[in-house]
Amino acid sequence: MPLRANLSALDNIALIPQYRSNQKYAEAADQAWALLVETGFQDMHAKRDPALSHSERFVTKLLRAVISKPAILLIDRPAMLLPEVHYPPFMFSMLERMTTYLDDCWIVDYQWNRALYDAHLDYPELDQAQP
Amino acid sequence: MIFITNFFTRRGTALLATWRIWRDTLRFAARAILIAATPAAYNSATRTVVMKQIYFTVVQILPGFMLFAALLSYVLIQIVVTTAASYGLSEYALEVSMRLLVLEILPLITALFVALRSSSAINTEIALMKINGELLALESAGVDTMRLEFMPRVIGGMISVLVLTAFTSVIALVLAYLAVYGWQSWSLPDFSRIMGNVFQNTVLLGIFLKSLAFGLAVTIIPVAEGMATPRMLFMAPISVLRGMVRLFFLIMLIEVASLALKYI
Q: Smallest Cα–Cα separation from A32: which of A51, A54, A10, A58?
C-alpha cells in the first residue's frame, strides 16, 4: 500500500488503526511510536515519504502492515524494496522484533535468490520459495 | 460527400470524447460534494488527512502569497488612485480599486496560484497512483479512496481558495485605506460607508460563490484527470498538461460567467 506523501512516517503508520477502527489519533500515534521504538527506527518518525531511505520506507510499510496484527504477512520480492542493503539479514532482524504482532510471515522471492537466505535456514518454510 | 462524412465522423468522435471527460468530471464532482457533506464520511483517519491537506494547501503558502498579494494590490491601488486623480475623479478611486481588486483580480489570482502550486501536484500524484496501480491496491485492501485520497484534496483546495481570497481581500482593504487616506484613523466612517456601498450582501454572496467554484475547479479537474489517466507511464505528463489546460479554461469560464452576471 502506498504511503501518503504529505504525512510523516509515524502518521502513516498511525493512519491504519485510525482508518480501520476509528481509533483516536493520540492512541494510534502512541501505538505507532511503540512499534518504531521496537524496530530501532524511531529517529525517522518525522520524515515524510520523499525523505525516507529504502530501508526506512520498508520499515514504515512493514509497520503499517503489522500494526493491525494481520493473520499473515506476505512480502513480495523484498530485493525490490531493499536495494541498498543486504536484505535477508535486515528483513529477518526486523521480523524477529515483530514476533509478538505476527502469527505467520511468507516471503516470496526468486529461486535463484535462495542462497541469500541460507544463513536463515532455521526458517524451514523458506524451502517453499517459488521461482 | 465522403470527405464531408469523414470530417463529421472525426469531429463527432472528438466531440463525444470531450463530452465524456466533462460528464465524468461532473459526476465525480457531485459524488465528492455529496460525500464531503456527509458527516458519517469523516472518521479519525479522514480528519487527520483533511487537516494535513489544509495545512499544506493553506497554511504553508500563506506568508509568501500574502506578501505577493500585498505588493500587487499596492501597485494596482496606486495606479487607480493616480489615474483617478489625473482625471479629477479622486472620489471614485477607492470604490473602483476595491471593485477591481476584491471582486475580480484577487479571487482570480488566488485560483491561478493554487492551480499552479497544488493542482498540478494533485494531478501528477493521482495520475502516478493510477499508473502504478496504487489506487487499485488501496481499493483491493478495502480502503475507500474517495474518503481517504480524493475528498481531503477537494476540501483542502476549496478551503485554500476561500481562505486565501479572504485574507488577501482584507490586506487590499487596509492598503486601499492607507493609499487614499494615509496613516490616520478619522476617515474610517467615510471608508466604511463606501465599502458598505460596494460590498452589499448580494455582492458578498457572489464573491463567496465564485471563490467556491474556483476552489472546486482547482481540485476536481486535476483529480478527475488523474483518475482518467491510462496505465502507461508516458501518459503522466500528458495527463497533467490536459488537466492544466482544462482547469485554465474552466477558471476563465467561471470568471467570464461571473462578470456577465454582474455587468450584462
A: A10
